[in-house]
């Protein structure tokens, strides 16, 4: 079940409500920097940076350097494909009484 193991980082991202809020902001606004995210959340700048680090390592967001600023945007296409594979495997191997 390497697919399940591959999904663990994105599940970690999705397990936290603050990261949900960051994902929603990026979905609504496209790219944003840490200051913009912090201004829209009830979190400190270090807390936002911590969440973004986790999200970057899980490939949930990407970062682009523009001048002195780093802008973050959603980048979950590959991770969604992995989760789709996991769902397909679960459908294939789970007992039919779960339908």
UniProtKB/TrEMBL annotation:
InterPro entries: ArsR-like_HTH (IPR011991), HTH_ArsR_DNA-bd_dom (IPR001845), HTH_MetalResp_TranReg (IPR051081), WH-like_DNA-bd_sf (IPR036388), WH_DNA-bd_sf (IPR036390). Keywords: DNA-binding, Transcription, Transcription regulation. Pfam families: HTH_5. The keyword Cytoplasm does not apply. GO terms for molecular function: DNA binding; DNA-binding transcription factor activity. Residues 1-94 form the HTH arsR-type domain. It comes from the Bacteria. The keyword Glycosyltransferase does not apply. NCBIfam families: HTH_metalloreg (NF033788). This is Arsenical resistance operon repressor. It comes from Moraxella caprae.
């Amino acid at each position: 079940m390497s697919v399940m193991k591959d999904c663990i980082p994105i599940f970690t991202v999705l397990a936290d409500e603050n990261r949900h809020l960051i994902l929603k902001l990026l979905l609504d606004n496209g790219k944003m920097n840490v200051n913009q995210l912090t201004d829209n959340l009830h979190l400190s700048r270090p807390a936002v940076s911590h969440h973004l680090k986790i999200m970057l390592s899980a490939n949930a967001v990407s970062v682009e350097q523009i001048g002195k600023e780093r802008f973050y945007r959603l980048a979950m296409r590959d991770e969604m494909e992995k989760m789709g594979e996991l769902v397909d495997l679960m459908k294939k191997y789970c007992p039919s009484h779960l339908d």
